[in-house]
Amino acid sequence: MIVIGQVLAEPWLSIARDGQFATWLHDPLPENVLVRHSFGRPPGAVLGRLDRWHEWLRWHGRGRSVVPMIDAFVGRRWLDSSQRVGTAAFLNRESVGWHQAMPDVYALQRWKVLGSLGMAMEEKFDYVYFTTASSYVRIAALVERVHDLPSVGVYAGTPMIDGVSGARFASGASRLMSRDVVEQVLLHRREYVNDVMEDVGLGRLIMGLGYELVPWPSLNVDSFDALENLSDAEIKENFHFRMRSGTRQARQDVPLMKALHQRVQGLEER
């Protein structure tokens, strides 16, 4: 099961519609692959500005220590809480979405992940793979890599290191868990802290439960020059590409995704 963290706000909505749905999500899926789109409510102008201010403080000056303390204090009583999640179409009638009854802001992403995991457990899957709206995924290559994994105890993804704690974790843009690991995360949800980014907190919980991180490769493509400099071998060796290009007001993810898709199609047709 592939779960894409979507946002019903720009530029992410356009990236999903004009980028992902026009490229790697355009072709029919393999029989053994499901795709689900997880999203919350648009936060609105005021809450959106507050959320961006919250994230700016998290990475600057005294905010590096103050914001986590405030988040931990405020979130402590809500660690067991679950929001309502319903099933709804996303962008078209054929695409299944999970509509979460919460504002889609950075500060609440930990709860969004848990909502997605809870919905996943209602369906049949062996592994669940999380990615983002700005990601391009070669599904067939992902499936091939999954074939090499054990059936249980799997936590895999793009390896990252938290700059504050030094903890290793899998990036929220590309991470995979086996079904038994998802069950354990939900069972130990109170240990999934909210005073760090959601992928850091999830990694701390999973590795604290005794699972090891299986490192998987990933490539950031932040410009057309970067894409042009990728060799055919590099594209073939990777299944996940993150289009981190431009500013929030002028993202270039869509044209980059389309250009990458053309190269991928050309390589696969040879």
Can you give a write-up of this model?
This protein is 39% helix and 25% strand. It is of the alpha/beta class and 270 residues long. The protein has one domain (2-269): Spore Coat Polysaccharide Biosynthesis Protein SpsA, Chain A (Alpha-Beta Complex), CATH 3.90.550. The strands form three sheets. The protein has an eight-stranded mixed beta sheet. The chain has a three-stranded mixed beta sheet with strand order 6-11-10. A two-stranded antiparallel sheet has the order 12-13. Helix 1 (12-20) runs parallel beside helix 10 (253-269) and helix 2 crosses helix 3 (63-75). The radius of gyration is 18 Å and the shape is globular. The mean pLDDT is 95.
